[in-house]
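Hi C.,

You asked whether I'd gotten around to modeling the 541-residue construct. I have! Everything is below, sequence then structure, no commentary in between.
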Amino acid sequence: MYLNHFGLDEPPFRITPHTDFFFAGANRGATLEALLYAITHDEGIVKVSGEVGSGKTMLCRVLMERLPEQVQTILLSNPALSRDEMIYAIAEELDIRQQGERLSVLLLKLQEHLITLYGENQRVVLLIDEAHAMPQETLEQVRLLSNLESSHSKLLQIVLFGQPELDEHLSMPHMRPLKERITHSFRLAPLARSDVEAYLDFRMRAAGYRGPNVFAPDAVRRIVKASEGLTRRVNILADKSLLAAFADNEHGISARHVNRAIRDSEFYHASIGKAKIGLAAGGVAAGLALGLGLHYLLSPSAQPATASAAPAQPATIGPAVPATEPSGAAVALAQQQIAQPAGTPPMTPAPSALATPAPIAATKQVAAPAAAKSTAAPVAAAQTAPAAQAAAAPAPAAAVPAATAAIELPAAPTGAKPGSMNYLPPMPAAGRLTRERFAATQEWLKSAPGDRYSIQLLTAGTRDLRHVEELLARATGRNLDLSDFYVYGVKINDQQHYRLAYGLYPTFADANQGIKALPPVYRQFAPYQRSVERMRSQNRQ
């Protein structure tokens, strides 16, 4: 939903293990290297423990990918296996033929097979996820499996992944034989504040984000406190925060967005229940638990009046709330708590990726920019008129005037505020070409067709405008028309930034082809597609 809004290729904070998003910070990378060493050097049983959501399963999946080719992996992710079921499951994974043999016979076949693999310079590692939930007799069988060895080394390496309860089980007197066979023990500690900040930035960029850090320091602090440094909670809060910012048509994540994400999370309500925090009005806690959800994250950012809530923030414009709402007195009371202050005029939805604006009149058909004909490949496939008619068509009414001289930026009407139709962002403070293209873009955005696409090249802060100026200055040397470049404003974490875009394309696919045809100097910042309507809404922030 928010991918195009933030320029992402895929969701950055999925809770399912995705090895491309493995974060090597904190002690994760070091633990992975230690596991690889222990497994490839016949170090017996290894244990990895950590709290729920600390990243054990992710580490297990990455370990499977990083092991050498001569190491066969067996993953047991079902901890409820009995002792016999575990042996049969291992035999099946190793393609050992089973004909209803007794367990003792199957164990003998397993040992012979492992000896054969060892002679072929093959190793086998058994990865047991959620080991804390295994029956004690199954854990005892794990110890017996560790006894399978040749005269020189272990035939089966074993790695146990589990929650801290696994340490408690191993501390029992009757589990001492297994505990003494554990040669290495690792603990995945919660992420510290600096680690969370690096983790958020790493995940965003792994998903294709190219702009400045989107999470403000106060937002990071709120995520650290609410998540307690557990990566799964960090993922949940970050994902919901991005959704809340998308609903507000903002590109920076503030503490206000994180607060909304926290109140929409299950562990938040669980912590309230444990602490028995009383709210001012009876039944409000139940109403929040029932009434908050996806529609709440997509609603305008009003804060519920609770004792722990952050100071009230000015209301911002966001997409319309879905018409279907949970009913009941408790929900109604919760809605009163999160309603906007009395006397505030009704809010109207802002354009967003959820609702594509209607095209401009059919007489204002906009063709691909002239530069696209030379560098970005024509988009004739998207044109419905014959090529001859397209060549004879008049210039579009929304075309940007050529940047041959400085253009005066029209003065915004008195009292125009961010988000309003008449609002104009401040003129860039430096760069003649940048200022000229910015002024021209402000005029162009008034009538440009919102369903077309441009290519976003660069996002720069007020101190980095030289990069925008340099890219504009290089246009003439590469047979690109300056009138095909657009400069517009955007607020990120309440700081003014400027974006440079290029070209106008009928469809998303055409813009994608245009990216491939760009000169290398314009592809160095990993450009991506951006709808004109999104450019217009960002410019009004």
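If it helps when you're writing up: The radius of gyration is 30 Å.

Thanks,
B.
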